[in-house]
Known about the structure:
Rossmann fold, two-stranded antiparallel ribbon, binds zinc ion, alpha/beta, Dehydroquinate synthase-like, alpha domain, 7-stranded mixed sheet, 45% helix, single chain, 14 helices, binds nicotinamide-adenine-dinucleotide
Amino acid sequence: MSSKLSVSMNKKPIYDILFEDSFDALANALRGLDMEGCSAVIVTDSTVGPHYAALVEESVKDVFSSCFTVSFPAGEKSKNLETVKMLTEQFVEHHLKRRDVVLALGGGVVGDVAGFCAAIYMRGIRVVQIPTTLLAQVDSSVGGKTGVDLDAYKNMIGAFKMPELVYINTSVLETLDARQFYSGMAEALKYGLIMDSSFYEWMLTKLYEIHERDKAVMAELIEQCCICKAKIVERDPLEQSDRALLNFGHTIGHAIEKYKDFQLLHGECVALGSVAAAYISWQKGKLAKDEYYEIRDMFVPFNLPISIEDIDAQEILRLTKSDKKADKGGVRFALLKRVGKAYLDSGVTDEEILAGIAEIEYREDGE
Ligand SMILES: NC(=O)c1ccc[n+]([C@@H]2O[C@H](COP(=O)([O-])OP(=O)(O)OC[C@H]3O[C@@H](n4cnc5c(N)ncnc54)[C@H](O)[C@@H]3O)[C@@H](O)[C@H]2O)c1
Ligand SMILES: [Zn+2]
């Protein structure tokens, strides 16, 4: 059950994504990247480390001359410059040099922080992404965006840092808790919505298998998501145009994430933001009404929220407009024309954003 996808930039292959169901193929993949004899650091967090760090260390010990593990407390709250300082100090203490390698073992937080450390340590050392959440496997480990939050400003500090390899071991999803699993499904649904209607329909037909985390179905789902993401990042690696389509659901989603002080998971906020963006798409006459309601309702069977209590619409609007993706002309929204077709729109008014927020605000009457 192994396969491979090559990600290119300017038509030149840059790195491979390997889809596996164990860590067994990792050592050989690293050897193929000329890493034999280098030192390596496994960067992980306090939840993933106890599950998988020893396993990964054991798998790669014959490849590297030395390998050590550094861990930080799990969660978005660790995605900051203090963690970067702690990690890079460890790199110095363990004498990591320019040719050495960071193995980022964890979810999107680990991938973003470890990738960022690799981007800046000694002006850049190599990084291998080993994503362990569904969200990281379908999204954050691919594309080379790395970074940390600055106070409540998400991903405000960062760098593009292409990995040498993305090694996806789908079996690690077994230990992922349900809420995190469905959070990842929000990103998977997003790909279907913005660029692949048949993939979207396929996910809806595989609802049962997805709930069961059926191995074959999950492997296919993850690979399909990576194909979608690779297609977009290949077209626009530095987010000058099309890559912004991947922000579908994220503009208002990020604002909610901040407003709720990261009490909700990223994917949960993306689901809410997607409903709001789909609503705005309908209100602007781009998306058919029926399609809007279908899109909204299909988050529910994937255990994702479509409404939220106790929000201050004006404050969410303010946060939406302060998102770093807002340019001078205003916020650039990814909106939908139909399932499978997104477009970018810089002409969304405050009133339309507020209407989108009102649509996801939970009301007692259930409307
Ligand atoms: N760089 C990008 O392109 C990109 C894209 C999307 C999201 N992100 C970022 O990713 C982050 C969210 O990532 P996430 O949802 O993976 O969160 P996360 O990394 O915090 O992981 C979620 C939780 O699951 C635990 N966990 C991870 N793998 C596990 C496993 N196999 N078994 C048991 N527990 C496991 C983690 O320890 C953590 O507690 C956000 O910071 C977001 O901004 C980045
Ligand atoms: Zn996301």
